[in-house]
Write a sequence for this structure.
């Protein structure tokens, strides 16, 4: 525990038989639960964790599982009853899984086996649901490949434990070694994705969107639909959109980039980036319609996109006449294009400015 708050670490694992034991061995003492979510590995990951569990004594801090018993409905508690029913029934929307432990309320290591491979995001969502059901105060995520330094876990959890923010992300790009350690392709791709994610999520000052080293508060776990978290590698980006819609505060904490510790990358960068960009575009409009529908920035963004889109046929006409055919362009066509284009750009800039001002309070240092 930290400051009398329960701490759980979710460890999504897929084919990490060579790495997972070191992650478990190096976990700090203040961690009350290590929740290994085995995403239907094809190697011996589950067996390695099971053997490790068998060697441990079940002497962890005892937790009480939420019963989600539906109260008798009265004139005033209908909203509470609906929430209880949702929490009780939502396991059906998660990836089918089996909890190996017989006494999970007393055991420090929890092993959850997915019945099918669903992706790292789905594994984290399963771990989040377990933490929600057991009332964990702070739930962190450390991947099973050993690329996250356990010594930094306390700094990741402290802001959440202290009630300062609802969500913390490790920021590898702030570390002095970032340009020296992170592979160049990943550094460039991460920087571009972080820029796009900051705009689409509304957390404009965030600079390492792809970091999976995170912690989240009990309040935030109850504020978002956990079963709707994107199941694959776009999970960190989708998570930020959902947190912003729920008006959760976030902070980035410096963390070191760790590579060449025996991990094996399972990510196809080009394929993943393509999917993440589409996910972010969808998340941007989801945020506008779900959170800012009655805000002026909603109007400015949509007007800007409308005028900009309408100007494109005029732009093509001008290019076709002036460059391809070498003919003179009708001044009216040119004026219409300039009006639509500049109006669209100005409206988008106003929308961006309002968006930054509106969400500034959600990013803390």
């Amino acid at each position: 525990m930290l400051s009398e708050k329960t701490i759980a670490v979710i460890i999504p694992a897929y084919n990490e038989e060579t790495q997972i034991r070191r992650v478990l061995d190096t976990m700090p003492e203040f961690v009350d639960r290590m929740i290994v979510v085995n995403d239907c590995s094809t190697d011996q990951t589950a067996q390695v964790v099971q053997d490790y569990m068998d060697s441990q004594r079940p002497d962890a801090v005892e937790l009480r599982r939420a019963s989600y018993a539906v109260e008798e409905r009265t004139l005033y508690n209908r909203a509470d009853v609906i929430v209880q029913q949702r929490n009780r029934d939502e396991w059906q929307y998660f990836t089918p899984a089996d909890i190996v432990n017989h006494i999970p309320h007393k055991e420090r290591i929890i092993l959850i086996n997915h019945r099918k491979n669903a992706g790292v995001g789905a594994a984290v969502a399963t771990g989040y649901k377990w933490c929600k059901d057991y009332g964990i105060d702070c739930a962190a995520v450390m991947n099973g490949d050993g690329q996250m330094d356990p010594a930094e876990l306390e700094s990741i959890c402290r802001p959440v434990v202290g009630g300062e923010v609802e969500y913390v992300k490790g920021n590898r790009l702030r570390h002095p070694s970032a340009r020296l350690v992170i592979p160049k392709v990943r550094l460039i791709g991460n920087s571009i994705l972080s820029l796009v994610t900051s705009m689409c999520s509304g957390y404009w000052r965030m600079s390492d969107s792809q970091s999976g080293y995170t912690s989240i508060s009990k309040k935030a776990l109850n504020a978002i639909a956990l079963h709707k978290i994107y199941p694959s590698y776009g999970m960190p980006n989708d998570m930020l959109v959902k947190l912003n819609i729920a008006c959760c505060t976030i902070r980035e904490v410096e963390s070191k980039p760790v590579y060449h510790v025996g991990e094996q990358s399972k990510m196809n960068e080009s394929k993943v980036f393509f999917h993440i960009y589409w996910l972010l575009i969808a998340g941007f409009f989801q945020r506008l319609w779900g959170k800012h529908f009655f805000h002026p920035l909603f109007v400015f963004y949509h007007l800007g996109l409308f005028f900009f889109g309408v100007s494109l046929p005029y732009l093509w006409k001008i290019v076709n006449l002036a460059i391809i055919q070498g003919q003179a362009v009708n001044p009216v066509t040119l004026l219409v294009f300039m009006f639509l284009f500049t109006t669209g750009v100005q409206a988008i800039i106003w929308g961006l400015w309002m968006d930054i001002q509106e969400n500034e309070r959600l990013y803390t240092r």
The chain has a mean pLDDT of 92. The chain has two domains: 7-291, 296-362. Residues 7-291 form a domain with the Spore Coat Polysaccharide Biosynthesis Protein SpsA; Chain A fold (CATH 3.90.550.10).
